[in-house]
Amino acid sequence: MTTATATARPTKPKTGWRTLGIVAVLAAITVWAAIAIGVDFDALVRNANNASNTLVQLVQPDYTFFPQTLPALLQTVQMAVIGTAVSIAIALPVSFWASRATNPNSTVLGIVRFIMNVVRSVPDLLYASLFVTVVGTGALSGIMALVLFNLGIMVKLISEALDGLDRGGQEAALAAGANWTKANRAAMLPEVAPSYISQAIYVLELNIRASTVIGLVGAGGLGMLIDKVRTFYEYHYLSMVILEILVLVVLLELLSSFARKRLAR
Amino acid sequence: MTAVTSRPASRPTAPESGLPGAGRPRKPHNMLRKAIWILITLIVLAAFWSVDISWDALLTFPQKLVHYLGLMFLPPAWAKFPDALGATMLSVAMAWFGTVIGIIISFPLSLLAARGLMPAVVRWPLRGVFAVLRAVPEVVIAVLMLSVTGLTAFTGALAIAIGSIGTLGKWGYESFESVDRGAIEAATAAGASKVQIMRWGVWPNAKPDVLAFWLYRFEISVRASAILGLIGAGGIGKMLIDNIQFRVWDVVGMLMIVVVVVTMLIDQISGTVRARIITGRWEVPIASALRRRSARRARALASPTVREDDGSLR
Known about the structure:
The complex is a heterodimer.
Chain A: H1 3-7, H2 12-37, H3 41-46, H4 48-58, H5 66-98, H6 106-120, H7 124-135, H8 139-163, H9 168-175, H10 180-213, H11 222-231, H12 235-264
Helix pairs in contact in A: 5-8, 5-10, 5-11, 6-8, 7-8, 8-10, 9-10, 10-12, 11-12
Chain B: H1 2-6, H2 26-50, H3 57-73, H4 81-113, H5 120-135, H6 138-149, H7 153-177, H8 181-189, H9 194-233, H10 236-245, H11 249-279, H12 285-302
C-alpha cells in the first residue's frame, strides 16, 4: 500500500510472477474440469421455473408425515449407536497395533497401517452398496458399512494420539520387566482414554450423518425413506425428512461439543 | 465391549473443581460418571435388543464374503481399466470444479462472517447458513437438485460446491478470527480502513491456513464425488453402482482398486502440497524417507562406532 512496505519487500516481483503462473495452471485445470463435466449454467436458467416449484414445496414440510418417519428415524439412531459401539471396541486393539509408540514390531505395524489406509479410502456408501448385495437390504448391511467406515477413522485418530503421548510410564513398565502388552495396558491406555472417548463421540456424530445417507442404496434408516419419497417427487415429505436429519445432526453436535468440552477440562 | 468402554470410569481422576462445599469432591463426581456410563451401556444394549435385524445372517457372512472377494479379485477385470480411468477423471473433474465454485462463493462470505468487518446482524445469519449447509449431506443436496438440472456430472459438481460452502465458510472465518492480533493492531494504528486491515493485517496471517483448507476440502470432495456417482451423477461411482447392480463382480473389484489407489494418491499429493504451504518446505513422502535413510547409512559408514538408533524412523 504505502512506500514503506514496498521498500521493505524487495522479492515481491518474483513471487508475483510465480503466483501468476500457479494461478494460470489452476485456472487451466478448472477450465478442463468444466469442459469434462459439461458445465451448463443455461440449464439452471431454463429449469428455474421447475426449481421454484420444488423450492416452494420444500419450504413447506408436511408435518403430518412425521409419525410415518419415526421407524426410519429410530433405525437411523440404532444403526449409528450399534455401529459406533462395535467399531470403537474393534478399533482399540487395532490402534495399539497401528501406533509406532505401542507396537515394536515394524512389520506388523506396516501391514496393519496399510490395511487401515485401504479401509479408510473406500467411501461409506460403497461399503453399504456392497454389503446390501452380499447380505441383503436392511439395517445389518448399513451397520457393517458404518463399522468399516468408522474403523478406518478411529484407528487413524487413536494411533496418532498414541504416537503423540508421553512414553515415560511405558518405559518404566518395560524396565520393570513387563511385556509390551502389559506396559501398554498399564501406561498407555489410561493416557489415551480421554481422546479415545472424545473420538468415539465424534464417530457417533459422523455415523448419524452417514446413516441418514447410506439408506439411499438400501441399507436402512432415513436414507431409504429419502430414496422412496424422491422417486415419487413428494417434496413435502422429502423436506420433512431433511428437517429431521438437520435437527438430529444439530442436537448431536451440541451434545458432542458439550461432552468434549467436559472431557477437555 | 462394555468392559472396554467402562474401563476409564474406574480410573481415579483429578478432583473436579467447582462443586460447592465439597470436602471430598471426588466421590459425587464418580457417581455421576458411573451413572453416565450405565446410561450409555443401557442405550447400546437397547439399540442391540430393539433393532430389527436377523442376526443369523451374520453366521453365513464370512463364507459369503470370501466367495464375493474371490469373484471380485481373482482376477480383477483389467480389460475395463481404460474406461475406469476415464470415469475417474470425470469424478476428479467434478470434485475440482465443485470445490473451485465453492471457494469462489465461500471466500467473500467467510470474510463477511469474520469478526471485525461486518456487524453482528450480517455475521450471525451467515454463520447459520454455513451451519445448515454443513448439516445436510452432499447426497441429499444432489437429490434436491435433481429436479433442476437432472442427474448429470454438473449436478454433482454443484452439490459439491454447495456442500463445500458450509465447511469452507466456517473454516475461513475461524482462521480469520484466530490470527495474531499484532498485525491488526499495527494496521489500525497506522490508520487503515476495515478493508485495509483485512488485506494487510489479517490475510497474510491467515493465508497458509486458508489455502491448506481449500486443498483439504478438495480431498473431501474427491470422496464425495465418488459417492455422488453412486446415486447416478456420473463418474467412477456410477460405473461402480452399475456393475454392482448387474453383478459383474470382476469389474467391481477392479474399480474398487482404482478408487482406493486414486483416493490415496490424491490424499498424498494434496497432503504434500498442504505441508509445503504451512511449513514452507517440500517434504515428499517416500522420497524424503529414502533421503533420510541414505543419509543415516552414510553417517553410519563414516563413523561405524556411533550407533544410530532413533526409534522413530524405523
